[in-house]
Amino acid sequence: MSFNRIFTNGKIFTADRENREANAMIICNGKISWIGKEEDMPSVVGEKIDLQGRRVLPAFIDAHLHPLMLAETSKQLACTPPGVTSIEDMVQALKKLREEQSPDSWIEGWGYDEGKLEEGRTPNRHDLDQAAKNVPIVLTRTCTHILSVNSKALEIAGITKHTPDPPGGKIDRDEYGEPTGVLRESAGDLVKNKMPVKSLEEKVGALAEYSDTFLAQGITGITEMMADHRPIDYFEIYKAAVEKGMKQRVALYYNWDEFQQLDLNDPALFDRKQSVYIAGIKLFADGSISGQTAWVHPAFIGDDENAGISTTSREELLEAGEAAKKYGIQLAVHAMGEQAIDQVIDTFYKRADWLEGAPSVRVEHASLPTVRAIQRAAESGIAFVTQPIFLFAEIESYLNNLGEERSRNTYPVKNILEKGIQVAFSSDAPATAWGDPVNPFVGLGAAVNRKAYDGSDIGQEQAISIETAVELYTKAAQEVVRIPFVGRLALGFHADFIVLEKDILQVDKADISSMTVEETYMGGEKVYQKKV
């Protein structure tokens, strides 16, 4: 038996180019059965809901983030302003956290950015030893590519003066060759692999609880960009989280090493109509700009010898690409620096064509694409998935590492779009130095204004319209991620949409980043209501 909900008196931005604006829609059994002008609406019986003239958008799809990590770090020490603005603040906060935890618990924190610390440097083991010497401390830098650990954590991991740098990683050392406690890229795994493993129940509970935060931000579609098979398979974790109440639709991208361990005989694993499915394989071609591990050209300012770290090879990329082709899924490759982006695009130049109607290869972040790389990506149908919040929130590190002119030319979204490349916006949360890292409105505001949080000009010539920015977080994100029948408000699509307190298409551009969601709907059901 069908059930209708009739929404009227709204300002509906559909993100559907064939029917761009509407003010009414009919939802039947969770899907849109009609949308258009109220005077043209057919006569139906059902529950009527007055949108009171408010702006309606399709619900957001975050095309690149780490939901499990985000949920877990929300319970860790936030090493971000305004609470932490110096290493001394960090030490005091860690001492307090230790007093609140059991004596043998690991102490974890996230989000520090040396560019925002008064000392202007990365915290090392000597700093962290002041907070605790007998309990391991692990702090994850905002980019998630660098760890700062204390002496106890180094001891547990067996990292000494004689430990070699692992492939694709670097152990920072002092003038005597002793580890400083700063571990870059794969070197961080030496400590991570020794940390206590949270139970399935703990992980599931964290995700289910965080679902409400996503809904409050208007996010109903998410990606897990670092899915693992061990010690607990992420497919199992996310399926259990959905059963426990997590409402988001989830696309999983498995780390390449972990993907090779999976039992892939069940075709249902790749069924995009399910609430959780395997969408692709993830590889890293380099690290981060803010952590000076992106594979760049020219080198970072102040160190002509440091052009970052290359973390994959053409052979590995091709092998992973063949696996993605075999299973009909995408290959997503993290690449920020010029050399890393070139490596990915040159490897798949005119060979990224195994999926029909969708990008086979995604370049994640695409911070510093050259003119040549943009042209070759356009010729190959390679998509870019980028994060406007990065430059907005991490301006200090970009200026310190790249300089003003080069920073302004990062993330050239307007140029990329003009070349016809598919682009999706996302947050990469929690991998950014912002207290509210998953907030889509911060990213939208950054893309439209091209100003950093401190007012710095971050490339006005690359600013885009708010309508385009919204599409990159909705319709375009769906086209890249491929969660079916979302991202637009159109006939036959799921009725996933948000109602805003103000009209985002009409407000002053400076107010976009501070906007909030009043209501979020999934399948025509209200799943979030802002508290008055």
From TrEMBL:
Domain (Amidohydrolase): residue spans on this chain: 49-528
Entry-linked InterPro entries: Amidohydro_3, Metal-dep_hydrolase_composite, Metal_Hydrolase, YtcJ-like
The protein, known as: Amidohydrolase YtcJ
